[in-house]
């Protein structure tokens, strides 16, 4: 009889960054439901979910260093490296160097520091862990009004591949998830930005992007969380250096 690999995460310690957003909150709930001990962080003052929570501002060097020290303390088996900022602006409109510094500061610099801290902890503990980085469909192609964000997510995909090769001898797997348009609370802000830049009524851009998905609708945070569970569990034990698209067919790889 076939003995399928389990998705059970009992006995595993999981860290979720960006935990207060729609995807992060769903990931925390999924990991906890499957038995993991979950730690969570974000910039919000508090967090309502089944996790031990600490607030860190990842643009602040002292907070980022403290977060990395915390990672060394909790010794995660699983990292869901999800924290990110979004902003809009092209080379002609508002995509200035201050915006670049903020987006690269969280989406690349802090992302890398947290991944490195988790990797060092796993190696020191001889844990065969799983690091899951959150990329985006924006990391696979440029977009005129989302220049800096696209570039940061392309960097996430590249760092995922490099880290996977570096950590393979330690049996630590590193993969990424590229969500497409996911219906999270952040879409209220995104829709308002598109309304500004493209002179559209509020709500129109959100409706348009959902209808443009080959499956015909926006994804749910749980769609991404289920992919994270797959990458965290024994179901994917022979996968590393990969980026999984959860985008309803938006990007053909």
Keywords:
253 residues, alpha/beta, seven-stranded parallel sheet
Characterise this structure.
- The chain has about 250 residues and is of the alpha/beta class.
- The chain has helices spanning about 20-35, 60-75, 95-125, 145-165, 185-200, 205-210, 220-230; strands spanning about 15, 35-40, 50-55, 80, 130-135, 175-180, 245.
- Helix 1 (about 20-35) crosses helix 7 and helix 2 (about 60-75) packs parallel to helix 3.
- The longest helix has 29 residues, at about 95-125.
- The chain starts with 12 loop residues before the first strand and ends in a 7-residue tail after the last strand.
Question: Over all CA atoms, what is the radius of gyration?
Answer: 18 Å
Uncertain residue segments: none
Strand order in space, largest sheet: 3-2-1-4-5-6-7
Q: Give a count of the beta strands, DSSP E runs of length 2 or more.
A: 7
Helix-strand pattern, N to C?
Answer: EHEEHEHEHEHHHE
Residue share in β-strands = 5-15%
Class from helix and strand fractions:
alpha/beta
* Overall form: globular
Residues in helix, %: 40-55%
> Main β-sheet, in a few words?
7 strands, parallel
Mean pLDDT level: 96
User: What's the helix count?
Assistant: 7
Q: Distance between the terminal alpha carbons, to the nearest Å? A: 34 Å
List the SSEs and their pairings.
Elements: E1 13-17, H1 22-33, E2 37-42, E3 52-55, H2 61-74, E4 78-81, H3 97-125, E5 130-134, H4 147-167, E6 173-179, H5 187-198, H6 204-212, H7 221-232, E7 243-246
Parallel strand pairs: 1-2, 1-4, 2-3, 4-5, 5-6, 6-7
Helix pairs in contact: 1-7, 2-3, 3-4
């Amino acid at each position: 009889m076939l003995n399928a690999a389990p998705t059970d995460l009992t006995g595993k310690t999981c860290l979720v960054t960006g935990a207060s957003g729609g995807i992060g909150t769903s990931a925390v709930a999924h990991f906890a439901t499957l038995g993991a001990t979950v730690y969570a962080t974000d910039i919000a003052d508090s967090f309502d979910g089944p996790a031990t929570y600490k607030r860190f501002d990842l643009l602040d060097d002292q907070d980022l260093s403290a977060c990395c020290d915390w990672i060394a303390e909790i010794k995660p088996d699983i990292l869901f490296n999800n924290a990110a900022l979004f902003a809009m602006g092209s080379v002609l409109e508002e995509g200035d160097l201050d915006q670049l510094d903020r987006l690269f500061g969280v989406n690349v610099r802090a992302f890398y520091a947290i991944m490195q801290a988790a990797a060092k902890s796993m190696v020191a503990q001889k844990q065969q862990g799983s690091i899951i980085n959150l990329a985006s469909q924006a990391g696979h192609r440029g977009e005129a009004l989302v220049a800096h964000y696209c570039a940061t997510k392309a960097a996430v995909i590249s760092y995922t591949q490099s880290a996977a090769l570096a950590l393979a001898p330690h049996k630590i797997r590193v993969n990424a998830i590229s969500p497409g348009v996911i219906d999270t609370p952040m879409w209220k802000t995104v829709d308002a930005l598109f309304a500004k830049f493209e002179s559209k009524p509020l709500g129109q851009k959100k409706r348009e992007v959902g209808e443009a998905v080959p499956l015909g609708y926006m994804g749910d945070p749980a769609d991404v969380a289920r992919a994270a569970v797959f990458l965290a569990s024994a179901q994917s034990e022979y996968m590393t250096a990969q980026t999984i698209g959860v985008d309803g067919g938006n990007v053909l790889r």
